[in-house]
Amino acid sequence: MTRSWLDSPAHHAWLTTEALRLLDFAKAARLPQGFGNLDDDGRLPRCALAETLNTARMTHSFALAHLQGVPGCLHLVEHGVAALHGPLRDAEYGGWFTHPEGQSGSDKAAYLHAFVALSASSAVVAGVAAAPALLEQAIEVIETRFWCEAQGALRESFSRDWQQAEAYRGANSNMHGVEAFLALADVTGDALWLDRALRIVERLILGQAASDGFRVTEHFDPGWQALPDYNRDNPTDGFRPYGTTPGHAFEWARLLLHLEAARMRADLPVSKALLNAAQGLFDSACRNAWHADGAPGLVYTLDWRDRPLVRERLHWVHAEAAATAAALLRRTGEPHYEQWYRCFWDFIATHFIDRVHGSWHHELDPTNQPSARIWGGKPDLYHALQALLLPRLPLAPSLATALAL
After folding, report:
1. Residue 248 known to be catalytic
2. Per its UniProt record, what SUPFAM superfamilies does this chain match (predicted)?
3. One of 113, 258, 361, 383 is an active-site residue; which one?
4. Residue 58 near residue 26, CB atoms below 8 Å
5. Is 304 exposed, middle or buried (0-12, 13-18, 19+ CB in 10 A)?
6. Whole-structure pTM over 0.70, yes or no?
7. What is the mean pLDDT of each run of 10 residues along the chain (405 residues)?
8. Is 291 a catalytic residue?
9. Of the residues 176, 248, 318, 361, which is catalytic?
10. 5-404 belongs to which CATH class?
């Protein structure tokens, strides 16, 4: 095979150009109280609301851009930090709302708070003056409300006043907890976060998934007993779909490699099981989800017999697949990861990149035409931007810290 795309100046230039195009598109998401969700044409709908999730993801993404030296991004990071300090934060009970106070969505979700912590850590690295205080608040909420030391994982969600806990545990929120914990370890210098990340991985991947052919079980009860029928009647849910989600298998695989590299960097014990599981997750997702219904692309979900269930192709799934192929290629040098890496980017460039209206189509139907059954508009910069950055960086430290070196 010719030189790897990971070492190709032309491929690096393509990644950079595409990242700058995405950033320019995403700047229109700014609202007075944070960042909102853009439509297909890159406009904010008249009724657009700031959201904590998108505000945190945008703040993180613009921090990464600023750290690369992209002009005009620092003030957007500062805007995001101010929104997370202000209208999106619950000054009475602590934590963060889904929308600004007074709007719908007052529950407190681990998924959301993991992204607040991630964005705060990136803003600290970017040098935003108000970011350390935001990071301190986020860490305090995670440690006092969400982290369960006895279970070695995150609790899922609470009522606004923290008095009622949801009778559910989710792999998705814990996966993003691992991502946030890797960044927190770098920014705080505290290896405790790497130990906590490992405990989550041991429960959900080295334990549960590894014993079931590297299928990632998504839904559990409060005692961490699997709920295989969860959302059977709502299979297209954007965050808690029924069945298995190959995109999360890719994402977990990449995070396992980052955790392995981070623990090596910190001179902490590392098990070979992390690499073995990363390879198992990637191989299972490729085998079962790619071209699974006779057409190219990765399907959104599979049933418990590994058959295509929701056949839409989502942009974030393919972004994670490309980033994970790059991580495995960097970690192992094995040529089939190069082949997958090129395959995924060829598919993204052919089907997802919208050269007319900008950004990427967020969803394609089973015939690979733009669709909106699960996700409408183009609200998400985070997954695509990271997929464009990660292939050029080492597996550790985490993104913001790596870009600052």
Report:
1. yes
2. Six-hairpin glycosidases
3. 383
4. yes
5. middle
6. yes
7. 91 98 98 97 94 97 98 98 97 92 74 98 98 98 98 97 97 98 98 98 97 97 98 94 98 99 98 98 98 97 97 98 99 98 98 98 98 94 98 98 98
8. no
9. 248
10. mainly alpha
